[in-house]
Amino acid sequence: MTTDEEIIARTDEIKARGKSPARVAPDPVNVPMIRHWAEAIGDTNPRWAPGPDTEAPPAMAQVWTMYGLNPERMPGDPLPDTMQVLDDAGFTSVLGTNCDQTYARTLRPGEAPSISTYLADVVGPKKTGVGEGWFITTKSVWTVGDEQVATMTFRVLKFKPGTGRPAVDRTKTLRPVVNRDTEFFWAGTAAGELRIQSCNACGELRHPPGPVCPVCHAMDRGYVVASGRGVVHSFLVHHAPAVPGKRLPLTLALVELAEGVRMVGEVDGDVAIGDAVEVWFDRIDDDLTLVKWRPAGAPAPEAEPEVESDLPVWELPITPTLVVSTALATRDFQDVHHDRDRSIGHGSKDIFINILSTTGLVQRYVTDWAGPQTQILSCALRLGAPAHPYDTLRFTGTIVSEADGVTTLDVRADVSIGTHANARLEIRR
C-alpha cells in the first residue's frame, strides 16, 4: 500500500523536472473541429463559421492538445505522470475542479499550437464530497512558433471512489399520495399553514386525515389551522437505508401538537423527548412543500436567495446528448462523460458535463449577450455540483466593473442540487 509520504516523494520528483518539452498538437487548428465544437455547444457566433476568416473559440485552447481516446503519452508530461502515481495508490477517479485560462488571441485554421506544462502543486489527502483525494495543479502555456497565445492553470481532484458523501438531490424527494382526504393538508403546506382535519358535526380533530369521524362517524369534514407548536413525544435517528432526497442521519419525531393530535415529521436539529418544537415549511419545488419541525426559538433556515442577474437568464436543459456530444467535441474521452455504468462505478449517479464544455457554455452565454465580436481575455472557472442529464443549467451574470475598455463579469451556472460553476471573465467589447 502506497503511503502519503511516498506519494509526496514521487510527485516532488515530477515537480523538480520543471517545464515539459513543448508538445505539438496532433492536428493543426481546423474548420471541422471548430464546427463540431460550435454545434455541440450551440454557439452560432459567425466568427466560428466556416469561411476565409474562421476563428477558433478561445475556450478551445486546450482542445487542440488533448491526447485523445487511445493516447500515447509524451514522456515527461507531468499531468499523466502525476495521475499515474495516484492511480497506483488507489485514487483512480478524476474530477476537474478549476480551469483558469487567459487568451492573447484566437487561433486560426492551419496553425499548430504547442503546449508546455509543469506541475505546480499536489495537495492531500483531503476529505471532499466525492471522496478522499489529492488536488493536482498544473500550469500550461500554448505557443504558435515563438508567440504565446494562451495560458492555463488547471486543477483536478484524484479521489478514491465510494469514499465520499454524495450531494443530496432534492428532486428525488419521495412524493406523498394526494387524494380527496389529504389534498387540503398539502394545499395548506403550500400556503404556509399547518392544517388539521376536523369533524364539522362534533368538532373532533384527527390526524392523519380520513373520510369518517372516528367519534361520531359523520363524513362532514373540515379543517382548522394549527398553531404550529408542539412537544416531542418520541423520536428516532435514521441511519440506513438511504432515503431519496434526504441526507442521513435523519431525525424523525412524533410531535404532540398543542391542539392535542400527534403528527410524524422530520426534525431539523437536536431534540429530546419533551422538547418544545415549532413547525417550518420546506419548499421542495412548485408542487411540493413539506412539514418539518425545529426546536422552539431556533432561527428559521435561510431560504436560498434569488440570484440577481445583469445579463438575461439562460436556462439550458441538460440531455445525455449534450453531455456526450460536448465531451467528444472537446476530445475528452474520460468515461465519466460517456459511459453511465462506468460513471456510477466511479461514485457518480450518472454521466456529467466536463469542465471544458462548461467553459465553452459560459463563454457562449457571455458572447451571446455582449455580441459576436467580443474578445474574451480571460476566464477563471471553478466547478461545484455536477451537471447530470435531465437537469437544467441556469446561467446568470453580474457586471463587476468596467475600466479601460475591459468589462469584468461574474457568471454563475446553477443546477437543481446547487451551483455547478462560478466563473470570472474579462472581456473587451
Task: Describe the 3D structure.
It is a single chain. The chain is α+β, with helices and mostly antiparallel strands and 429 residues long. The chain is 17% helix and 36% strand. It is built from 7 helices and 18 strands. It has helices at residues 4-16, 31-41, 78-88, 183-190, 320-329, 340-345, 355-370; strands spanning 23-24, 93-103, 114-127, 132-144, 147-159, 195-199, 205-206, 221-225, 229-238, 250-257, 262-267, 276-285, 288-295, 314-317, 375-383, 392-403, 406-415, 418-428. The strands form 3 sheets. It has a 10-stranded antiparallel β-sheet, with helices on both faces. It has a 5-stranded mixed beta barrel with strand order 9-10-11-13-12. It has a 3-stranded antiparallel β-sheet with strand order 7-6-8. α1 runs antiparallel to α3 and α2 (31-41) packs antiparallel against α5 (320-329). The mean pLDDT is 92.
Structural class of the secondary structure composition? Answer: alpha+beta
What's the SSE pattern? HEHHEEEEHEEEEEEEEEHHHEEEE
Instruction: Report helical residue fraction.
Output: 10-25%
Rounded mean pLDDT is: 92
**Biggest pleated-sheet summary:** 10 strands, antiparallel
Q: Give the termini distance in whole angstroms.
A: 54 Å
Would you identify the regions where 5 or more consecutive residues have pLDDT less than 50? none
Multimeric state: single chain
What is the count of DSSP helices, taking H or I runs of 4+ residues? 7
Number of strands: 18
For the largest sheet, list the strands in their spatial order: 1-3-4-5-2-15-18-17-16-14
Radius of gyration: 27 Å
Overall shape: it is elongated
